[in-house]
Specification:
Strands 1-11-8-7-5-6 form a 6-stranded parallel sheet. Strands 3-2-4 form a 3-stranded parallel sheet, sandwiched between helices. It contains 10 helices and 11 strands. It is globular and about 50 Å long. Helix 2 packs across helix 10, helix 6 crosses helix 7 and helix 6 crosses helix 10. It is α/β, with parallel strands linked by helices. The chain has 2 domains: 85 residues, Rossmann fold (3-Layer(aba) Sandwich), CATH 3.40.50; 134 residues, 3-Layer(aba) Sandwich (Rossmann fold), CATH 3.40.50.720. Bound molecules: guanine. The site of guanine (GUN) has 9 residues, from strand 4 and helix 6.
Length: 297
C-alpha cells in the first residue's frame, strides 16, 4: 500500500484563511488580536519557530510582538516581561518559547502567564480545563493541530485505537486527553506509550491511529505499523546532511520511506503537523481576543 499523504500545509492554509476572516470581523469592532512571543537565548530551531509565529500573525492581520532576551537573562527579568505583557491591552496571547535555558524554571514562567492569555495552553488552569473538556480553556497548539488535521482529513477517531508515543506535557499527554474526550475528533481509545513501554512495536501495531512525538529521527519503522493505519509524525529533527545548503535536513520520528509503504495515510515532515501548530496558535489568539471583548459569549 502507498499511503495517502496528509497535507498539513493545505489544511493549515484553510484554517489560516478562516482566522483572517475572524480577524477582519473583529477589526470591524475595533479589536486587533495581538500575540506576544518571548524567546530566551539563541537556540537556532526556536529562532525559526518564533519568526514563523510572528510572520503568521502579521499575515492574519494580527498584532505581533517578539521579545528576545539574552540566554543569560535572569528569571526575574523574564517574569517582569510576562507581567508587562499580562498588563498590556494590545496583547491577547502570550507564549514563552520552550526550551528555556537551564537556569530558568520553565514551570514558574508558565504559571506567571495570565491563564486568559495562555494561548499555548500550558498553564495548570488550561491543562486542567483541557483534561476536563471545558471549552473555555486553551488547548495546546500541537495536540489541537493534530486533532484538527484528523478531523479535516476525514480520519475517524470514534472507536479507533490511538496509540500516542511520547508523554510530554506539550504533545503526548494533552493529546491523550483530547482524543479520548466525548467530542468531535474524540471518542478514541487512547494508549499513551513512552520510553519505558514494553514491546513498543507490538503495541504500536495495534493502533488504527499512530501518533509519534518522541523527538528522535526515524525512531519507529514499518515493523511498528499496522497495514492501513494512519500515522501522524510530530517529530521535527535536524539530521546532518552535507548535500543540503544548510548542512542539515528535517526528519520526522518515523522512517517515512518504509512506513509510507505500509500505512494507509501519513503526515510528511516537513509539511505535516508543523504548519498545523502555527495555525492553531492563531486560532487560540483570536479566541482570547474575542473572550476579552465578549466575556460572556
Ligand atoms: N517548543 C516546542 N513546541 C512548543 C510550543 O508549542 N510552544 C512553546 N511555547 N514552545 C514550544
Amino acid at each position: 500500500m502507498i499511503a495517502r499523504i496528509l497535507d498539513g500545509v493545505a489544511i493549515a492554509a484553510t484554517i489560516r484563511a478562516e482566522v483572517r476572516d475572524d480577524v477582519a470581523a473583529l477589526a470591524r469592532e475595533g479589536v486587533v488580536p495581538g500575540l506576544a512571543v518571548v524567546l530566551v537565548g539563541d537556540d537556532p530551531a526556536s529562532q525559526v519557530y518564533v519568526r514563523s509565529k510572528g510572520k503568521a500573525c502579521l499575515e492574519a492581520g494580527m498584532h505581533s510582538e517578539t521579545v528576545t532576551l539574552a540566554a543569560e537573562a535572569s528569571e526575574t527579568e523574564i517574569l517582569a516581561t510576562i507581567d508587562r505583557l499580562n498588563a498590556d491591552p494590545r496583547i491577547d496571547g502570550i507564549l514563552c518559547q520552550l526550551p528555556v535555558p537551564p537556569h530558568v524554571n520553565a514551570e514558574r514562567v508558565i504559571r506567571r502567564i495570565d491563564p486568559a492569555k495562555d494561548v499555548d495552553g500550558f498553564h495548570p488552569v488550561n491543562v486542567g480545563k483541557t483534561a476536563l473538556g471545558d471549552p473555555t480553556g486553551f488547548q495546546p497548539a500541537t495536540p489541537f493541530g493534530v486533532q484538527q488535521l484528523l478531523i479535516r482529513a476525514g480520519v475517524p477517531t470514534e472507536g479507533a485505537h490511538a496509540v500516542i508515543v511520547g508523554r510530554s506535557n506539550i504533545v503526548g499527554r494533552p493529546l491523550a486527553n483530547l482524543l479520548s474526550l466525548d467530542t468531535a475528533g474524540g471518542n478514541a481509545t487512547t494508549t499513551l506509550a513512552h520510553s519505558r513501554t514494553r514491546d513498543l512495536a507490538a503495541l504500536c501495531r495495534t493502533a488504527d491511529i499512530l501518533i509519534v512525538a518522541i523527538g528522535r529521527a526515524g525512531f519507529l519503522g514499518a515493523d511498528a505499523v499496522k497495514p492501513g493505519a494512519t500515522v501522524i509524525d510530530v517529530g521535527i529533527n535536524r539530521v546532518d546532511d552535507a548535500t543540503r545548503p544548510r548542512g542539515y535536513r528535517l526528519a520526522g520520528d518515523v522512517d517515512f520511506e518504509s512506513v509510507s509503504a505500509v500505512a494507509g495515510a501519513i503526515t510528511p515532515v516537513p509539511g505535516g503537523v508543523g504548519p498545523m501548530t502555527i495555525a492553531m496558535l492563531l486560532v487560540n489568539t483570536v479566541r482570547a481576543a474575542r473572550a476579552r471583548v465578549q466575556p460572556d459569549a
